[in-house]
Design brief:
4 helices; elongated; mainly alpha
Length: 137
């Protein structure tokens, strides 16, 4: 289970990297489309937005799996770190919903995404460290 925990935590970190790349693609595609005269309205979408939305849903499932696995994996502080990642993802979804009405919250959405990657990376590293065996006796 320790290996599953590590892999899931690494997948969360990789997922955030994909999110950052996708939203960067979205911004540049939006800019390019607007320059080319494409109508940008509520029905507008591009590949970057689609990847960001789809990957965000996948990430939520992976984070939930990480939380569940954390209860069975022998990772020091693993439940705590998985819980923090889960909480940050709940905050991330909340910020995404609220940012449609208050776009400035997008700043916090981006910063929080980096926090998710950082904590998930710490969790993966913690799971990579061999457990300390008790020698009492």
């Amino acid at each position: 289970m320790r290996a599953a925990y590590r892999v899931l935590a690494m997948l969360v970190t990789l997922g955030v990297v994909i999110q950052v790349a996708a939203i960067g693609l979205d911004g540049f595609m939006l800019n390019s489309d607007a320059r080319d005269g494409v109508t940008v309205d509520s029905s507008y979408s591009n590949l970057g937005q689609s990847i960001h939305a789809m990957n965000g849903n996948i990430l939520a499932v992976v984070v939930l799996a990480l939380l569940v696995v954390s209860f069975f994996a022998d990772v020091p502080g693993g439940r705590k770190l998985a819980g923090i990642v889960f909480g940050l993802v709940v905050l991330q979804i909340t910020l995404a919903v609220l940012a449609s009405g208050a776009p400035a919250l997008g700043i916090l959405h981006g910063i929080n995404g980096l926090a998710i990657a950082g904590v998930a990376s710490m969790a993966a590293k913690r799971a990579s460290t061999p457990p300390v065996l008790s020698t009492s006796g």
